[in-house]
Amino acid sequence: MSDALAARGEAIHKALLAMESDCAENDLFPLGYMIPQVELVLENADYDPEDVVAEDFDATFEEWMQHAFAQDSMSVDDRERIAELWAEARKRAQTTVGA
Fold first, then answer.
1. Per-domain boundaries in the chain
2. How many whole angstroms separate alpha carbon 79 and alpha carbon 97?
3. Measured between alpha carbons, how far is 29 from 18 in angstroms, rounded to an integer?
4. Which pLDDT value is given to residue 2?
5. What DSSP line would sit under 30-82, residue for residue?
6. What CA–CA distance (Å, rounded) separates 70 from 52?
7. Residue 85 class from Cβ within 10 Å (0-12 exposed, 13-18 middle, 19+ buried)?
8. pLDDT means per 10 residues in the chain (99 residues)?
9. Could you tell me the superkingdom of the organism this chain comes from (predicted)?
10. Per-residue confidence (pLDDT) for residue 34, from 0 to 100
11. Residue 58: how many CB atoms within 10 A of its CB?
């Protein structure tokens, strides 16, 4: 049985790790913030693999991040940079899976 949500999460995780390996110094914090969040979403997601599509990971991650931002009192600048890097990671993950 295929698990589209987990596969998408893994593709995003790999994209973020690749981005971190060659990023500018000022992107180390936002990427380092996002990478473990992906793992937490995957660990804590409660779903039936038959009832999800890959895009459900993205929606779940975005909702998770909004809660994390509030809990961590994330600055507007950091939130904006994370959003930009998130968009890039999503593009890279799409390319990786050929979707």
1. 4-97
2. 27
3. 15
4. 81
5. HHHHHHHHHHHHHHH----GGG--HHHHHHHHHHHHHHHHHHHT--HHHHHHH
6. 27
7. buried
8. 90 98 97 97 94 94 97 96 98 72
9. Bacteria
10. 98
11. 18
